[in-house]
Amino acid sequence: MSAIAFIGLGQMGAPMAKNLLKAGHELFVYDVVPKGVEELVACGANAMDSNKAVAQKSDVVITMLPNSPHVKTVILGADGVLEGRHEGMKIIEMSSIAPLATKEVGAACAKAGVPMLESPVSGGEIGAINGTLALMCGGEESLLEEMRPILEVMAGTITYCGALGAGNTTKLVNQHIIAVETAAVAEAFVMGLKAGVEPEVVYNAIRNGYAGSKVLDGKLAMAMDRDFKAGFRLDLHIKDLTNALETGHALGAAMPLASLVMDEMKYMSAIGAGSEDSAAVMRYYERLAGVELTRSKK
Ligand code: NAD
User: Fold this and answer.
1) What is the reported pTM?
2) Is residue 298 predicted with pLDDT exceeding 70?
């Protein structure tokens, strides 16, 4: 069993860290917000007072933070993980961030003699609680194999995607498709409803055909039940689309669909839906047409 530092005990990090504790690892935890730390200490983790301090105590440092700037601060910044480095320490960076930032942080870690694996996740809070996340790993494949026993505690599937940056690139593809597909489902179902066919009727007719998908199942159900509790927060999805657009633009990939859905999501966030599930973007289409995609009334 390893001594593991877990930094970032939010919606995803807290349940992931609890699973590592349950698996018998010794955990040193830090977050700028006390709530997650208190939760983990109640389960047996050791609280420390900085990112540097948890790193000093651990063989493996796991980070699960909102976005690229947070990861840079935590790993490269003052009182950060690299300041706590020591012989044999390794980093598993599990946040969803810009691939270019992953490469930058990974290069700085390598220069300091600390190997870093990236491993963004998919599967949401439920996947984090159940230890069934889909991991998209980038970095040295030998490091993935070394870290596999730790990763398996949190994962249902582990996919090696390539060099550092490939994991977060894969995650951006995932996030792009979910965003655009959610908007497509809303637009098409609103059109169907305006034409007089209830969402539930259309759904039952098409769900097992070619248009069937997890996005259709999950996001449409939220609209039909009028329950937009996250799930995956709208503001995090805006962050992912921002990273996707920046990556696409930097590399010459045109992304008109992502740009469009991004503006719709930003509008919904501006009117107060940022902490709801990203399915809230469906209400943008409902508003344009003056309908709601509720379940059949009978
Ligand atoms: P979150 O905002 O709930 O948690 C992030 C945590 O990081 C917070 O507790 C915050 O206080 C902490 N943090 C921020 N700056 C810090 C610093 N300088 N030092 C220490 N701690 C710091 O976010 P989340 O939902 O847990 O998501 C984490 C990452 O996983 C994001 O990149 C997100 O896009 C990705 N993700 C989230 C989900 C989901 O369903 N929520 C699913 C898949 C992937």
Assistant:
1) 0.95
2) no
